[in-house]
């Protein structure tokens, strides 16, 4: 959503229907691009480029928390993982290849269809569903790990989204997130630079006002019953042309939060 537009609220919910923090305009925009999720040179090119770094973060944090070995090909075996805002399955598929039982949900049914088709062609068993965390939470399901990458800067109510996402984490489990910090540096790089100067993402992809400061994230997580334990930056290395995990959280960052309870080894 362009920074110049007013915030749009989700339409009223029908009686008995869970409220949703999804923004209709945002869902529609990603739905219109659903056929291009796996085009590495298309509109989701930046996600393909950052995937290795964020997968490393996810794998290493889960192995450290649940006692897995990050050096094995099935390092996440035995873990139930949910990817919120899964899109076309760019994270679900590599997580499944690492041995996890993976589920993915997305508010855009078109993205879910694209993910389902691609995973079938890849021979992977992944459960996909068109849903929001609020609607899935009504089922009572819980997971060892819930992942939501590059999503919370696109929702209407961050705290409500974190509460719903946190309710899907079993006691002792973890919530892994990535988002953009709301700083002048991120305005220059992630909004103006990435959208209008470099053309990495289509103009209007982000609304800088929706970027989330780590302090705001930590507060929302505490209210959702989780404790923020890890923060890492995700920075572009122009000389190498790739993205790396760093200590600089001023623009892109990843976070891990833990829900109180007994941790079961994988």
What does this structure look like?
The protein is an alpha/beta fold. Helix 6 links the parallel strand 4 (143-149) and strand 5. The protein has one domain (24-259): Rossmann fold (3-Layer(aba) Sandwich). Helix 6 (158-167) crosses helix 8. Residues 1-17 have low confidence and may be disordered. The chain has helices at 24-32, 45-66, 92-97, 109-121, 133-137, 158-167, 184-197, 214-223; strands spanning 80-84, 101-106, 127-130, 143-149, 169-180, 226-237, 242-246, 252-259. The termini are far apart.
Oligomer category: single chain
The run of helices and strands is HHEHEHEHEHEHHEEE
How much β-strand is present in the residues? 15-25%
Low-confidence stretches: 1-17
| Alpha-beta content class | alpha/beta
CATH superfamily membership: Vaccinia Virus protein VP39
Helical stretch count?
8
Query: How many β strands by DSSP?
Result: 8
Principal-axis shape equals globular
- Sequence of strands across the biggest β-sheet: 3-2-1-4-5-8-6-7
Through-space gap between termini: 40 Å
CATH class: Alpha Beta
Mean pLDDT: 88
The largest β sheet comes out as: 8 strands, mixed
According to CATH, the fold-level topology is Rossmann fold
Provide the CATH architecture.
3-Layer(aba) Sandwich
Over the alpha carbons, how many angstroms does the gyration radius reach? 17 Å
Amount of helix = 25-40%
Number of domains: 1
């Amino acid at each position: 959503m362009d920074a110049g537009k007013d915030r749009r609220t989700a339409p009223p919910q029908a009686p008995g229907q869970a409220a949703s923090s999804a923004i209709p305009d945002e869902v529609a925009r990603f739905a219109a691009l659903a056929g291009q999720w796996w085009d590495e040179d298309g509109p989701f090119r930046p996600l393909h480029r950052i995937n290795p770094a964020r997968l490393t973060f996810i794998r290493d944090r889960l192995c450290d928390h649940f006692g897995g070995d990050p050096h094995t090909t099935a390092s996440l075996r035995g873990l139930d993982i949910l990817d919120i805002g899964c899109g076309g399955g760019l994270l679900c598929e590599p997580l499944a290849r690492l041995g996890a039982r993976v589920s993915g949900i997305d508010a855009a049914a078109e993205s879910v269809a694209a993910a389902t088709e691609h995973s079938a062609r890849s021979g992977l068993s992944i459960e996909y569903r068109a849903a929001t965390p609020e609607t899935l939470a009504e089922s009572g399901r819980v997971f060892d790990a819930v992942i939501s990458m590059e999503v919370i800067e696109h929702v209407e109510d961050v705290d409500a989204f974190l509460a719903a996402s946190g309710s899907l984490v079993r006691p002792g489990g973890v919530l892994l997130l990535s988002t953009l910090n709301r700083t002048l540096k991120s305005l220059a790089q992630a909004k103006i630079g990435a959208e209008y100067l470099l053309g990495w993402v289509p103009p209007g992809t982000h609304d800088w006002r929706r970027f989330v400061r780590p302090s705001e994230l930590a507060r929302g997580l505490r209210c959702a019953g989780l404790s923020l334990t890890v923060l890492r930056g995700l920075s572009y290395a122009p000389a190498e042309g790739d993205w790396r995990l760093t200590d600089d959280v001023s623009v892109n960052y990843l976070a891990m939060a833990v829900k109180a309870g007994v941790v079961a080894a994988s």
